[in-house]
Design brief:
Structural class: alpha+beta
Order of helices and strands: HHEEEEHEHHEEEEH
Number of strands: 9
Radius of gyration: 17 Å
Largest sheet: 5 strands, antiparallel
Number of helices: 6
Low-confidence stretches: none
Strand order of the largest sheet: 5-9-8-7-6
Helix content: 25-40%
Distance between the termini: 33 Å
Strand content: 15-25%
Amino acid sequence: MNYVPAIQIALEKFRACSLEDIRSFSGYLVKGTCMQINFLGQHFEVEYPSGKFIPEPSMFEELPVFVQILILHYLANTTAVNIEGKFISFKELPGGNIYIQPFTNRAILPLAKLFGAEPQRLLEVAFRIGGRQAEVGDAGVTIHVFPRIPITLVFWKGDEEFVASANILFDASASFFLPTEDYAVMASFVVATLKRLVNELRI
């Protein structure tokens, strides 16, 4: 997929923001002209105004371009809205009901396959990337992908009548920060990160 147009637009929006606004709204520490980013257990910097990513060694050889775009979108958002603490599903995001099947196929079903047999494993793996146990479902964990954007992964155990199921929930404030398609990208990347950890840790 050609990400060149998308990253150019993201860089333009990022550069259109002032460094002070990014400092005030992102929730990240700024040293000099660099944002100190902690993203799913990876630590790196984003330089302003170039938008250059300066990564430390991580579980990924290189931060994928679509993730760089996602991060730039977040840094360029200066909406003064607080986290509401209320869960909504993907289909409750603007236009989410239209894309719920692709979202299910890319994120929810892989998540259910990864941890459906032993949901408690989710907690052990997610804790390694900053996750915290959530009091929802039979097993749940909330991960702050960004300082102002938590997502919650939740499992319900199966029984004789129902198979085990999973879902990915967002805060009710989510639509103020990123477009719906970014949440699809984010959720699928979170699941891919958890899968990579499971494989590397052999949990």
